[in-house]
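Researcher: Quick sanity check before group meeting.
Model: Go ahead. Protein one:
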Amino acid sequence: MTIQEAAQRSGLTAYTLRYYERIGLIRPVGRDGNGHRDYSEQDLVWLEFLTKLRTTGMPIADMCRYAELMRGGSGTAGERLEMLEEHRERVRSRIAELAQDLKALDHKIDSFRARV
C-alpha cells in the first residue's frame, strides 16, 4: 500500500512514517515498480505496536533500541521482554498517578456542584 494509505490506516502522518523509517523504528520499506514506498500488512502491525509504545510514554530512544533488538532476532528476546516489563511498570505507575489526579478532579467538581 502507498504511504498515504499506510498513513490513513495507521493514524500516523506520512511525515511520521518517513521519520520512523529514517531513524530505524521501521525497517526500510519495500518499493514498488515506480520506486514508491510499498507498505505491507506486517508493517501496519508493527506501526500499531509502535503507536501503543509511544502512546504509553515510551521514549523514542527506547523504541529505537527495541526495534534494533527485534532485528537482532530471537537471541534478543530476553532483553526485549525486560524492556517491555520495565515499561509496563512505568505505565502502571502512571495509571495510578492519573487515578489519584482523577479523584482530586472529581472532588473539586463535586464541591462546585454542591454550590451551584
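Researcher: Fine. The other one?
Model: Protein two, sequence then structure:
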Amino acid sequence: MPSRLEARALAFGYPGHAPVLDAVDLTLRRGEVCALLGPNGAGKTTLLRLLLGLLRPTKGEILLEGVSLQKLTGKERALRMAYVPQEALPRFPMTVFEAVLLGRKPHMRWGPGKNDLARTGETLARLGLEALAQRPLDALSGGQRQKVTLARALAQDTDWLLLDEPVSNLDLRHQIEVLDLARRVAEKRHLGVLLSLHDVNMAVRFAHTVALLVPSPRGARVEACGEPTMVLTPERMRTVYGIAMQTYHGENGQVPLWFPSPPQP
C-alpha cells in the first residue's frame, strides 16, 4: 500500500465567491514534514481542510494511501489523520489530561478505556507535559497550550498529522520546540506531517519539503514542491510574495536564511 496522501488536479470554491484553488497537485509522504507556504488568503487552510475530507472538492480527487478519500467515513478518516486547526483547544474548563484524552475519541465506543487512559499518559510523558496533567487549560502559557494541542493529535495514533499555522503567536523558543517536535515524530514514528507556515526560514530549517501555494484569479496553484533549497529561489519568492528576497548562507553555508533585499538607491 502506498504511504502517500495525494491531491490530483484539485479545485475548490465557496459558493458566490471567486475560486480558491485550481488544479492543485500535491504528493505527501510518510516520514517527512512538508511546509505549506504562501501569502495570506492563498488558500492554505482550505487545502488542509480538503485533504482532511472536511470540504469536498469541486474538481479533482484526493487519495489517502491509494484509496479515494470520498470512500472513507468520518471515523475512518479520524483513525488515519489528525488535525490541529488554528483554534484547537476548547474554551470550556478542562484539565490538560482531559484535553489530550479527547484525541482518543475515534478509538472509543462508549467512553475511555484503560488503553485510552494509558496512551494519554504516555503521550504526556513523551512531550514532557506529565507535570501539567491536572492543570486547567486556561492556566497555561501560549507555548504550553500549543504543545497540548500537539499531544492531543499524537494521542489520536494516526499516520498523518495536519497542522494549520501551529506556531502563530508563539515566541521564538516555542516555535522551535513545536517545529522540532513535528520533525522528530515524522522521522521516528514515520508520520506524514503537513503544516502551514508564514516563516520561510523556519520551513527551511525544519521541513523536509516545501510546497509554494500561489494565488491567481482562477484559484491558487502549487507553484513548486520539493526540497527547500531547490524550491525556494529568488524568482519564486518574488512570484509568491511580491517582494525581492536574497539569501544569507552564514559561515557553514548549510542552512540559508532569507531576507528582503535592500532597496535600490
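Researcher: One line on it for the slide.
Model: Residues 88-157 form one domain.
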